[in-house]
Amino acid sequence: MFAVKGLNVSTDKLKVETEHGSVLATPMPRTVAAGEEGAAPKPKPKKRKRAGRSNHTDVNLENVADLWEKVIEGGDNKARKAREDAKKEAHKAKKQKTEATENQPEGTTAAAEAAEAATLKPATTLKDKKKKIKADKKAAADATTTESKPSAPTPAPAPAAPKLTPLQAAMREKLISARFRHLNETLYTRPSKEAFSLFSDSPEMFTEYHEGFRRQVDVWPENPVNGYIADIKTRGKLRNAPRTRPGDGTSEGTKYPLPRDRNGLCTIADLGCGDAKLAEALVPLKRKLGIEVKSYDLQDGGKPELITRADIANLPLKEGSVDVAIFCLALMGTNWIDFVEEAYRVLRWKGELWVAEIKSRFVDPTKQGGKKGGPGNVVSHSVGNRRKPGAASGGPVGKKDKAKMKEEEEAEEEQQLAVHVDGVELRKQETDVTAFVEALRKRGFLLQREYGHGAVDMDNKMFVKMHFVKAVPAIKGKCADLKKEALKTTQTDAKGRPIKTPKFIDAADGEASFNENALLKPCVYKIR
């Protein structure tokens, strides 16, 4: 049925059409409204309701205003305010973007838009989650496929170096020793500037040299650097000097504390340090002993944290910045005197200089040229001096001559027994360091009184140890220039009369002139 405009028929007059005619339709039952008596229970809706929502909300006088704002006006005040703030922020961002786009060049506009789009895009959306799940499934499938496939064969390890036969090992040792001898001669017979340039161009030479040097040290009865390490450990723990008078023969240098600056720090410079054995032993104890170790050599030997590359004739140190300078078998090169003068420059006043050198290197050039006891004369115990007393005169040998010869032979046998049995060395064979000590005195170094007779230690059969102190002005060398200029200035007394200043004793004033660098012979081995 449908409504027709202008036609209005009541439902009571409607009839049902049949085969025999029309019959009045039975009246339709009246529907009972919900809530009335006899009303059927309302069927439960099949639509799934979301959690936290309720369709039945009772409206009364108390909540009608809140429901009006929430439903009709679009939410509570807080939500509305948040939406307004979001709109303002979006408008502000859009305005800033427009201004930035106008100021930026064309090339950077596209990149900025892409970055902004990535920023404004929600971090996690349903679409992104689905994509992520698909990507995870694909990665898992790929991993399963990779595991099922046979893994590629790993590369075989490098073959180990073939073991040398005894003959090959012996030949290798000889080659290393020969290389060491060659480099050793180069260092002793050239100035330090050339050696520094050579090792800078070929750093591997430094490693080769010290590999051979370590083999030489293995056969020594003692390494001087070990003694220096022990002395520093002993003296580093001391803070007060003993009450014994220095230089009286009873005091020992190891009972005196190390020299220190005003802050209590002792700076030690190991000049010509080699493989920095001194620094390796003392750096872990620097806080405990209150020391700082600085090592210098021609190359760092792969230890840049310990060794500084430098020519020790020209150190990168300030004047008076070191308390102890050490030359342990390091006075190599034809200009070793320059090393001593540089040590004087960097040492503080009363700073100490420790020197250890091989005994066979010390010579005295002033005794050469035929003087008594010098190398120009025949040695008293040589074969040429053992001629029979009568041979010089050409006459027969008498009883007195025979008795004298017998006495000399007996005395010589006693001396040899003293050398071999008692360990007493002949006075003639002792190392003479007098000229060396004098050369250092002219450069401002004196033997340390605290060590007494031990300031020159010759107990070791191979080495000499000497302890000096910077205690007088240098009268020779590069550090004496300013002193000489100061003495050349004219000084006057109270009456204005000039005072005669003392002159330094130079070679022209009666001293024999010679090359002081020749006081130490080069320690050269036979090159095989």
UniProtKB/TrEMBL annotation:
Under Pfam families, the record lists: Methyltransf_8
Q: Name one GO biological process term.
A: ribosomal large subunit biogenesis
Its principal location? nucleus
Q: Where in the cell is it found?
A: Nucleus, Nucleolus
For this protein, the record's InterPro entries field holds: RRP8, RRP8_N, SAM-dependent_MTases_sf
Keywords of the record, alphabetical order, are:
Methyltransferase, Nucleus, rRNA processing, S-adenosyl-L-methionine, Transferase
Question: Which SUPFAM superfamilies has this protein been placed in?
Answer: S-adenosyl-L-methionine-dependent methyltransferases
Residue ranges, compositional bias (Basic and acidic residues): 67-88, 398-407
Documented EC number(s): 2.1.1.-
Ranges for region Disordered: 1-162, 239-258, 365-417
Gene Ontology cellular component list = nucleolus
Regions of biased composition (Basic residues) lie at: 43-53
Q: Where is the composition biased (Low complexity)?
A: 108-125, 141-151
Q: Name one GO molecular function term.
A: rRNA (adenine) methyltransferase activity
What's this protein's function?
S-adenosyl-L-methionine-dependent methyltransferase that specifically methylates the N(1) position of adenine in helix 25.1 in 25S rRNA. Required both for ribosomal 40S and 60S subunits biogenesis. Required for efficient pre-rRNA cleavage at site A2.
The family note in this entry says: Belongs to the methyltransferase superfamily. RRP8 family.
User: What is this protein called in UniProt?
Assistant: Ribosomal RNA-processing protein 8
Q: Which organism is it from?
A: Pseudoneurospora amorphoporcata
